[in-house]
Amino acid sequence: MGPLALNANERYTYGEYKKWNDGKSWELIDGVPYSMTPAPSRKHQKIAGELFRQFANYLTDKPCEVYAAHFDVRLPEADEADDDVATVVQPDIAVICDQSKLDDAGCKGSPDLIVEVLSPATSRKDLKDKFLRYERAGVREYWLADPTAKTVMVFTIGADGRYGRPGIYAEEDTIRVGIFEDLTVDLPAVFR
């Protein structure tokens, strides 16, 4: 049963989320369920795949790990029990450097870097709801890749715990990844 068969005004937790078996993928943001359907476009998949490849190649034999959707990232507010967590997202790409955050269910806690590839069905959620939740959770870098404009916006968390003005990169640029000293991402390959 999925959440829409229940009360639409209800707030849900990870404990309930784990029991949904309606064949759909879901996310929870502050207890509000969001369906992950329809499936991403081929262009979306290609961009996410190339970004993942570049991160994965760099991270070979390094302590950080990179994961692609569908990979549950639980973002607790404080130290609540796992089943009481109200935010569970499935970013297109998540980089986690703190191994203690990883378990068989995915990641519990803030990844170091998250990439979302925008699509018509998810843009509003990625630009507003997830942006605010990732900022609150302390995700150090949040990337928004726009397949239509062929741009990537990179938000970096500041000392005040807030995202500042984004770096904006076009399809001919390279991006120096802020959480690593020597990694650059090649956007011509991403948007080819």
UniProtKB/TrEMBL annotation:
Residues 16-185 form the Putative restriction endonuclease domain. InterPro entries: Nuclease_put_TT1808, Restrct_endonuc-II-like, Uma2. PANTHER family: GLR1098 PROTEIN, RESTRICTION ENDONUCLEASE DOMAIN-CONTAINING PROTEIN-RELATED. CDD domains: DUF820-like. It comes from Geotalea uraniireducens (strain Rf4) (Geobacter uraniireducens). This is Putative restriction endonuclease domain-containing protein. It comes from the Bacteria.
